[in-house]
Amino acid sequence: MSQVSSEKRSAWITISIFVLLATALSVVPHYAIVNFNPASIYVGVLMWTPAIAAFLTLKIRGRTISSMPWKWGKSRYPLGAYLTPVLYIAIAYGLAWMLGFGEVINTSTVEKWSRELGLDSSATVYVTAVMIALLGTIGFFKAAATVLGEEIGWRGFFIWELRKVLPFGTAAIVCGLIWSLWHWPIVLYYGGGNFLFQMTTFTVTLVSMSVIMTYFTFKSGSVWPAVIFHSSHNIYIQKIFTPITIKTENTNFWLDEFGILIPVAVTLFALYFWRTAKAEGM
Questions:
Q1: What is the pTM assigned to this prediction?
Q2: In sequence order, what DSSP letters do the residues of 96-116 get, joined into one string?
Q3: Residue 93 domain boundaries
Q4: Looking at residue 191, what is its pLDDT?
Q5: What are phi and psi of 255, to 5 degrees?
Q6: pLDDT of residue 39 exceeding 80
Q7: What confidence score (pLDDT) does residue 192 get?
Q8: By the 8 A CB rule, do 269 and 211 touch?
Q9: End-to-end CA distance of the chain
Q10: Does a structural domain hold residue 209?
Q11: Which of 97, 119, 157, 207 is the most interior residue, by most CB within 10 Å?
Q12: Residue 17 in domain
C-alpha cells in the first residue's frame, strides 16, 4: 500500500470515528430538548457534543488537542467572517421589506428593547441602534460561547479530515450535509410548519454556510473565523432582523431561518466563495 493510500485510509477511519461519536453523543441532548424543560439548557449541551467528539477522536487516534487550528490568523478573515452574514441577511430582509413580505419596524420589539435598556420607547431609531450595537457585540460573544462547541468539531476538526480525501467543494458540501442532518431533530421540534419545506431550506442554508466557512477556515488556517461567522449569522437573524420585522401573511414563507430568501442569498454568496477558492487553487 502506497503512503498516499495509507494516509487516505487513516483519514477515512478518523472521519468515521468522529461521525459515530458525534451521533452517539448527541442522542441524549436531542432527547432532552424534546422531552424536558427548559430546552435551552440542553441545546447548549448539544452544541458542545461535536467538540467532545473531536477531542475523543484525537485521543483515540493518538493526536493532541493542540494539533487543532487554534491560531488567530490574519485579522481580515475574522472581520470578513463577521460581516459576510450581516451582508447577505441584510440583503434578504431588505428585499423582503421592499416587496411587502414583511415590514419594519416592529414597535412591540422596540418597546421590549426600550424597557430592557431603560430608554424612552418613542426614540425608536435610537433604541434600535443601541440594541443592535449591543447585540452585535456583547450578544455576539454570548452566542459564540455555545457556537464554539459546534465549530471546534465541524470546522476545527472534521473539515480538515475531509480535506485529506476530498476536494474543497466536495468536502465543504459533505460537512454541510452532515452538519445539517445533525440539526434535523431540533428543526423538527422547533419548526412547527411544513416539514419537507423547512428541511429543504434549512439544509440548503447550512450547506451554503459550510462552503463559506470552509473557505475562511482554510484561508486563515484557523477555527476562529468559522466561530465568528456562525455567531454573526445566528445573532443577526434570530436577535435583530427577525424581531424588528412586522410579520405579514407570507413572512414565514420568505424570511427567518426556514424561509426562502436566506438560503437563496447565502447560496449566491457561497457560489462566489467557491469560485474564489477554485481560482486560488484551494
A1: 0.95
A2: HHHHTSEES--HHHHHHHHHH
A3: 71-279
A4: 64
A5: -125, 180
A6: no
A7: 64
A8: no
A9: 27
A10: yes
A11: 157
A12: no
Residue 98 belongs to some domain of the structure: yes
Please compute the mean of the pLDDT values over residues 40-61 and round it to a whole number: 94
Residue 146 in grid coordinates: 455555545
d(CA 142, CA 162): 29
**Phi, psi of 223, rounded to the nearest 5 degrees:** -80, -20
Q: What element of type H or E holds 29?
A: helix 3-35
Q: Is the pLDDT of residue 184 over 90?
A: no
211: left (phi over 0), alpha (psi -120 to 50) or beta: alpha
Nearest alpha carbon to residue 223 among 63, 50, 87: 50
Residues in the chain: 282
In a domain, 167, yes or no: yes
CA distance 77 to 228: 10
Q: What is the per-residue pLDDT for 1? A: 56
Which residue's C-alpha cell is 458540501? 173
- How many domains would you assign to the chain? 1
Number of neighbouring beta carbons within 10 Å of residue 141: 10
Cell triple for residue 173?
458540501
Could you list the beta-strand ranges (E) of the chain: 102-103, 246-247
- Kindly state the cell numbers that stand for 102: 414583511
CA distances from 222 to 70, 71, 89, 218 (A): 6, 6, 24, 7
3-class DSSP state of 72:
coil
pLDDT digits (tens, 9 = 90+) for 193-227: 678 888 999 999 999 999 999 999 999 999 999 99
